[in-house]
Design brief:
Helix content is 30%, strand content 15%. By secondary structure, the protein is an alpha+beta fold.
Length: 71
């Protein structure tokens, strides 16, 4: 069980709300921008990581941010 919420943007509404580019096929297309946001309990974006092809930097930075917020 996770101690935080995750969001999957299947219909593209969050992409649109945050101004994230979508690929030629629209939301769900394999080449959409990949952006990970960490949002604090206060609703403030504490971290965002952009990267198209690899998830590792997203995981590493998101976890580092979450851990720093928990201290």
């Amino acid at each position: 069980r996770l101690n935080h919420r995750l969001l999957s943007d299947q219909d593209g509404s969050v992409h649109k709300a945050f101004g994230v580019r979508t690929g030629a096929g629209g939301p769900g297309f394999v080449l959409n921008d990949r952006i990970t946001f960490v949002i604090g309990r206060d609703g403030v974006v504490r971290s965002n990581v952009r990267g198209l092809l690899t998830a590792d930097p997203h995981v590493d930075e998101a976890l580092a941010t979450i851990r720093s917020l928990a201290q």
